[in-house]
Amino acid sequence: MTLTIVVGAQWGDEGKGRIVDLLATKSDIVARYYGGDNAGHTVTVGGEIFKLHLLPSGVVHPHSIGLLGNGMVINPATLLDEMERVRKAGLEINPDRIKISHAAHIITPGHIALDGAREAARGENMIGTTKRGIGPAYNSKVTRSGLRMEDMLDPEAFKEAVYLHIKSVNHQLEKLFGADVLDAAAISKQYQIYAEKLSPYIIEVGEFADQALKKGSIILAEGAQGTLLDLDHGTYPFVTSSTPTAPGALVGLGLGIGSANRVVGVVKAFQTRVGEGPFPTELDGDLAVCLRGTGENDWDEFGTTTGRPRRVGWLDIVLLRYAVRLNGISELALTKLDILSGLESINLCTKYRIGDKITPTLPLGPSNLEGVEAIFEDLPGWKDDLTSIRTWQDLPEAARGYISRIEDLLNVPVKIISVGPERSQVIQR
Ligand code: GDP
Ligand code: IMO
Ligand code: MG
Fold first, then answer.
1. pLDDT at position 1
2. Longest C-alpha distance within the chain, in Å?
3. Is 41 a residue of the active site?
4. Measured between alpha carbons, how far is residue 274 from residues 27, 38, 277, 306, 401 in Å?
5. What was the pLDDT predicted at 261?
6. Which residues of the chain have pLDDT under 50?
7. Residue 180 CB coordination number (10 Å)
8. pLDDT in tens, 242-292
9. 76 lines ligand 2 (CB under 6 A)
10. How many degrees, rounded to 5, is the angle at CA 280 between CA 279 and CA 283?
11. Are 101 and 242 in contact (CB under 8 A)?
12. Is residue 189 a contact partner of residue 15, using CB atoms and an 8 Å limit?
């Protein structure tokens, strides 16, 4: 059995796509297990940049099969667009290569309209969602009124179901939010066309994955979002509506306990977050601009999905300790180390002061971080450009010191160090 789970250890955008692309070289199958097109995963190969929202990042490798698991919420319009973009880049997209779970849920314009209306109604308490309809689609799922991919297999009945769903959303939009209603007839007709196009891709993904593992295939489960955005374990309510943490890979693909034998936690060398919510090590001013960039490089900290500037801060070991424990992380992949070059010194948050107590862990999880004070260790920075370095020995002493300190504090090895967005810009230990 070889199932490796790649999970975001922070608030998303850690560089999961980049690390999945690297690990996909030695995998047969790459599978997304939760989330939807709120995700934006970037893969850079030979200067060509792929931005993937629903297809697993591994599809960039011609040999790999891509699975979309039952835990996902899928906007068929985004998926078909993405399939077309990837096809135009010269990669094959067909039902032999891409397989979608019959039990994944479907996002409609109704869910997107509700996402917008709910955010507007929250006013100052908005979550800062990606407005992709994610929360409302999972809401339909848990209230057992959702549309599933298997419903597409009967396009005529599916059309009728979409029509009734939009009618019901319209009722909410009008009565609860005073918002504009949607054209149920036009949307249901459009969704029938999507159904005809996507039907050939729909299978029982859990069975396929299980059989593949038994035959000796290597599966890479690609997390979206990040640990601190997990619905149960994140900075609630400023979270997404699914389970991006590693155990979600089993539920979200339909695999049994015991299938996974390796959990790679992807960590950015500093901390970022988009959207609202607490952020104990957040920076502003010149240092923030230094970490975020100004938007001229593709890798600067502006959202892949929404273009919003990301909030930035120092690496937070208290939150990372929590992520290591929750996910059962066995090794770390550290990304964007190159961005720290040029700083005089680097702060690392190792503990929090809460009232008059100092603590290395979270007494009640991360949902109540307002008012905690980050306590920092001050480590020396380095001037050298790291982007051409390919071995541990060639890294400046201060950069090695920073990584070794992270390993000591977390008691987990950093096995992959990324020093640029390009596939080759990496140090493997
Ligand atoms: P994901 O959502 O976790 O897959 O991450 P995103 O793709 O949203 O954001 C990560 C950004 O950082 C992308 O633009 C990547 O190309 C870029 N990136 C990843 N690793 C590195 C790195 O080591 N150095 C630099 N400079 N950029 C990186
Ligand atoms: P990847 O996979 C960063 C954030 C949103 C918002 C919160 C809820 O690229 O790392 P949602 O639309 O999911 O209801 O929004 O979650 N969020 C992400 N932040 N990276 C992501 O995905 C995210 N997906 C959702 O910004 O704060
Ligand atoms: Mg992203």
1. 61
2. 65
3. yes
4. 31, 11, 9, 9, 29
5. 85
6. none
7. 10
8. 999 999 999 999 999 988 889 999 999 999 999 899 999 999 999 999 999
9. no
10. 80
11. no
12. no
Q: Considering only CA atoms, which of 268, 227, 294 is closest in space to residue 15?
A: 268
Pairing of strands 345-354, 357-359: antiparallel
Residue 271 CA to ligand 2 centre (angstroms): 15
- Whole-prediction pTM: 0.97
Amino acid at 302: F
Question: What are the helix (H) ranges across 267-354?
Answer: 285-292, 317-327
- Annotate 100-166 with DSSP letters as a single string: EETT-EE--HHHHHHHHHHHHHHGGG-----SSSHHHHHHHHHTT---BGGGGGSHHHHHHHHHHHH
| pLDDT tens digits, 36-74 | 999 999 999 998 999 999 999 999 999 999 999 999 999
Residues with CB under 5 A from ligand 3 (ion): 13, 40, 304
Catalytic residue status for 63: no
Tell me the CA–centroid distance for residue 343 and ligand 1, in Å: 20
Given ligand 2 and candidates 14, 21, 274, 279, which is best to mutate, with the most ligand atoms within 8 Å of its CB? 274
Residue whose structure tokens are 């596939």: 423
